[in-house]
Amino acid sequence: MGLFRSSCLFITFLSCLVISVHGQATARPPGFGVGPRLGFYSTTCPNVETIVRNAVTAGFNANPRIAPGILRMLFHDCFVLGCDASILISGTNTERTAGPNLNLRGFEVIDNAKTQLEAACPGVVSCADILALAARDSVVLTRGISWQVPTGRRDGRVSLASNANNLPGPGDSVAIQQQKFTAVGLSTRELVVLAGAHTIGTAGCGTFSNRLFNSTGGADPTIDPTFLPQLRTQCPQNGDASVRVDLDNGSGTTFDNSYFINLSRGRGVLQSDQILWTDPATRPIVQQLMSPRSTFNAEFARAMNRMSTIGLLTGTSGEIRRVCSAIN
Ligand code: HEM
Ligand SMILES: *[C@@H]1O[C@H](CO)[C@@H](O)[C@H](O)[C@H]1NC(C)=O
Ligand SMILES: *[C@@H]1O[C@H](CO)[C@@H](O)[C@H](O)[C@H]1NC(C)=O
Ligand SMILES: CC(=O)N[C@H]1CO[C@H](CO)[C@@H](O)[C@@H]1O
User: Fold this and answer.
1) How far is it, in rounded angstroms, from Cα 123 to Cα 267?
2) Is the CB of 194 under 6 A from ligand 1?
3) Would you call 184 helix, strand, or coil by DSSP?
4) Taking the CB of the first residue and of the last residue of the chain, which one, N or C, has fewer CB atoms within 10 A?
5) How far apart are alpha carbons 320 and 135 in whole angstroms?
6) What fold, for 17-168?
7) Which of the 8 DSSP states describes residue 29?
8) How far is the CA of 230 from the centre of ligand 3 (A)?
């Protein structure tokens, strides 16, 4: 199993290089048939993208929180056993029940898209593909860039909370974050670019309150002194840890590069975000991405296609789920 996974990762990797040239699959080397590709469903389910987009749009209109929710869901799926929709399985001890996944949002939107797809083209579209498409649509709905998403993923048959330990956490150093991204084949630059997903969405006070009040009541000195009182007002000491704060203050519902600008001013919310500015290993990357000539959007699209091909199941391994929340 371990060996199989790593060889998949390697194969996926090569195809990613091909995909990443223009953010779309172009010619593949001969005999290179595995991996996702554009138009995978063009004859078997031609309306797949419209159906997914409509479901995500309806969910977003009802509750805009589902856009960041779904974007984060793809990240948490791909880092744990690859992009195989293992995050979507409900039940005791599944990935979904692991601590870092408890605040994910948008499961019902994926389920809804799947129901409609089963009516239109039964047994054809994988939940892993629905999630990858829905994450792209979530970026578009928050006024970010659009890009083409190769499809052809298959759904996994394993989902265990104990596998979620490799997810990056808000207290991770840059070195640990790098280690966790390298382990799935992503570079330091891709780490910083993908962390730019925090340009939308929120975090619970409990994920960063340690920065506001240490054992002697002091605060993390890297927090902008004018921003600190705002954070302390929203998240008072011993207050409600579930109160949510924008990760990109002042621009938390718009997908743009202001997250990086805020980091440079000590206005990051998570410690794992703010240290991307204070650590010399990542600061120059933040500096480039925050500039007016930032290539953030295009790089984000490419990095998303790379992240969404981690550890794919290929050929006949895995399955096409009938319902996204349950293994067949
Ligand atoms: C680099 C390591 C990362 C760490 C340590 C990290 C950590 C976190 C934490 C602690 C939260 C707040 C969760 C909560 O309180 O509910 C969060 C939210 C979020 N993360 Fe990350 N994250 C990382 C990378 C990423 C990546 C790569 C993506 C997607 C490409 C992503 C997308 C999001 C989004 C969209 C939210 C907002 C969720 C919402 O509003 O419901 N994160 N992240
Ligand atoms: C708490 O924060 C203050 C202010 O940044 C700092 O001077 C102090 O060393 C910190 N104490 C501990 C125990 O971390
Ligand atoms: C974020 O920005 C808004 C203004 O858009 C402000 O009212 C709020 O207090 C700021 N701070 C936090 C921690 O959200
Ligand atoms: C707290 C703060 O200064 N937030 C800023 C983050 O960046 C955006 C865009 O530059 C500003 O609008 C916010 O005010």
Assistant:
1) 47
2) yes
3) coil
4) N
5) 19
6) Peroxidase; domain 1 (1.10.520)
7) P
8) 7
What is the percent of the chain with per-residue pLDDT over 70, rounded to a whole number? 90
Give the tens place of pLDDT for each residue, 7-26: 334 334 434 333 333 333 33
Residues listed for the chain: 328
Classify 10 as helix, strand or coil: helix
Nearest to 300, CA basis, from 20, 73, 15:
20
Ligand 4 pocket residue status of 229, Cβ below 6 Å: no
The Cα 245–Cα 261 span in angstroms is 18
What confidence tens digit (pLDDT) does each residue in 250-309 have? 999 999 999 999 999 999 999 999 999 999 999 999 999 999 999 999 999 999 999 999
CB-neighbour burial class of residue 322 (10 A; exposed 0-12, middle 13-18, buried 19+): middle
Given pLDDT bands bounded at 50, 70 and 90, which one contains residue 34?
Answer: low
Closest listed ligand to the CA of 222: 2
For residue 218, give the ligand 2 atom closest to its CA.
Answer: 2
- The number of beta carbons lying within 10 Å of the beta carbon of residue 49 is 17
Topology of domain 174-305 in CATH is Peroxidase; domain 2 (1.10.420)
pLDDT tens string 151-193: 999 999 999 999 998 899 999 999 999 999 999 999 999 999 9
User: Do 77 and 128 touch, CB atoms closer than 8 A?
Assistant: yes
Residue span(s) of the chain under CATH 1.10.520.10 come to 17-168
| Site of tokens 């004859």 | 43
Which amino acid, 8?
C
Nearest CA to ligand 4 atom 2: 249
Count H helices and E strands in the chain, helices first: 12, 2
C-alpha distance across the termini of the chain, in Å: 20
Residue that is written with structure tokens 């290539």 in the block: 295
Q: 22 an active-site residue?
A: no
Structure tokens, 213: 């009040």
Residue ranges matching CATH 1.10.420.10 in the chain: 174-305
Instruction: Map residue 105 onto helix, strand or coil.
Output: coil
